[in-house]
Write a sequence for this structure.
């Protein structure tokens, strides 16, 4: 029998980069003749990588991961770690490492986090000629993001104008106030804290 050793905590990666999800067999056994299967939580029949019959099975499993996953370890030393390349937000979450010999099998989970970064939005408004210009400024987002303006009932406001300049998002929306400016301030406060 054997067990699998994976990290206790979460593995962090960066969007667009690569990350290794560690998984090793203990004691260190030669795994070249074993089946090694990496899959997303509860999706064992649709692996993102399947090593079987002494090779990676190229056309089996989830097509989204083709050409972006590989085994990086030395199988003969029990290293069955997975390398994920060109990370995207949907790559966040649980991955399961499954190893099966002719007598035994084990599985263990590894969790991947991809932090989304950017500055807090700063909302401001100006009144001019019976209209209110509401501006939201935020920058440094990875990945690039979009902002949707909504009214008090949650309906999308479609006549927004957005600008993107050197890493700074500047979103503007002109609207005719139905309520007094104090109501708009209250709505902006509420909308900002609910996001």
């Amino acid at each position: 029998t054997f067990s699998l050793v994976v990290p206790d905590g979460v593995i962090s990666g960066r969007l667009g980069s690569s990350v290794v999800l560690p998984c090793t067999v203990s004691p260190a056994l030669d795994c070249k003749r074993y089946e090694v299967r990496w899959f997303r939580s509860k999706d064992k029949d649709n692996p993102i990588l399947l090593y079987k019959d002494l090779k990676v099975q190229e056309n089996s499993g989830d097509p989204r991961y083709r050409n972006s996953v590989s085994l990086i370890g030395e199988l003969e030393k029990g290293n069955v770690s997975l390398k994920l390349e060109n990370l995207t937000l949907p790559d966040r979450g649980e991955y399961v490492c499954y190893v099966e010999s002719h007598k035994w099998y084990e599985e263990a989970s590894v969790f991947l986090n991809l932090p989304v970064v950017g500055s807090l939005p700063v909302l401001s408004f100006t009144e001019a000629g019976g209209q209110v210009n509401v501006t939201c400024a935020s920058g440094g987002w990875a990945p690039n993001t979009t902002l949707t303006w909504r009214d008090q009932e949650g309906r999308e406001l479609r006549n927004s104008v957005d600008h993107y300049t050197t890493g700074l998002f500047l979103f503007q929306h002109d609207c005719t106030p139905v309520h007094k400016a104090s109501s708009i301030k209250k709505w902006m406060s509420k909308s900002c804290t609910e996001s």
Notes: The helical segments are 181-194. The first strand starts at residue 3 and ends at 5.
